Fold:
Amino acid sequence: MKIAPARNIAFQILRTVASTDAHSDELLRARRMDTLSAQDRALVTTLVLGTLRWQMKLDTLIRPLLSRPDTRLSTVVETTLRLGAFQLLYLDRIPAYAAISDSVELAKQSGDAPAARMVNAVLRKVARLPRAAESSQQQTAQQIADVFAHPLWMVDRWSRFYGVNIAEAICRFHQQPATTSIRLLDPNVERELIAEGIQLQPGEFLTAARRVISGDIVRSKPFLEGRMRIQDEASQLVAELAGIGNRILDTCAAPGGKTAILAERNPEGSITAWDISKRRLEAMRQTLSSSGDRIKLEVRDATEANLRPEYDLILCDVPCTGTGTIGRNPEIRFRVTEQEIARQHARQVRILSSALAGLVPDGRLLYSTCSLEPEENEAVVAECLGANPEFTSRSLIGEVERLAATGVLTHASSTNFAASAIEGGFLRTIPGIHNCDGFFAAVLTRN
Structure:
């Protein structure tokens, strides 16, 4: 029996995520996706991200239905059961027989006939369970974790740092399909996209941003020609807040979206972009080819740099746990631990300390992460300032006002955005409060 292409590819991606450190968003952009129709590509994305978002809850439902609930399942069987159960419980338009029969065939591909029979029996039991329903407001971290399929330790942290209501808003946002935001590089692009059947809405706070409501954006002519980029609006904002400079350093540049905005906003500036990954820099080289030799790409570890003061603008968008991007990278919730937060903090301090040495007097360094964790954000800034008293933190309120005055921020959003996203002089976007990924940013200057 032939398995539907979308389910087959979704299964392969989920199995890879479960058995390696690969990221679902990168796998969903792999070349094999190009062979699918727009409808099938959309279904693969729904199956992969939906299964990962609800994986903890699916496991809780599946385990009691096994003849031996403590049985150790292979990755193939576990992935097959999760994928089948997600379709049965969360996707109304997929017939139960199709979800079950394709799941059984996927199990048979492993060559384990008893496993296929078990998948069939368990999924038939799942099909008799009530469909998942929208949940009302939860009162405790434990309830939020259970209802929205997040690790308790993670929800408990957010409840302590932001309050229970915001913690629930974050988790609820993570369980919804992530918004696709684009950056327009040409004023004619929007009209071209609309003519190709792409439905767009204005961004939440940036005039150059649009949200894709419907349509096949990755096969549009402007996307294929590099006249627009897919980039979360908060990620765009971080680069906008970096400001203006002549000699610019981007310390952790890949995949290059922020570097591109630095080049866009500083047409006369000279930009040096570092990254530790040669492969990712080569991909950046293709993306940024239109900038000519104004951007110099170097394979370099920012933690080991020995800089002297020569840059008047530095972007230090450091590697982090990525907990602000769980909405589009749902597997992060399974991979990050509290111990990982401490490890990231130590590396971030090394990167920021190293980068500060390269800043000229009155120069600006923008430090940022896509993490919701204070240890990776305020704590890194505080530790580096404590060890380097010649530097100070500057409030980003002034930068928001500059962006509003120059038309980078939409007029309607500038006041409300400053009130909701700037706290203690730092930027913090919060998923569920803002319709974007969670980012933190701070500006440091040399006295």
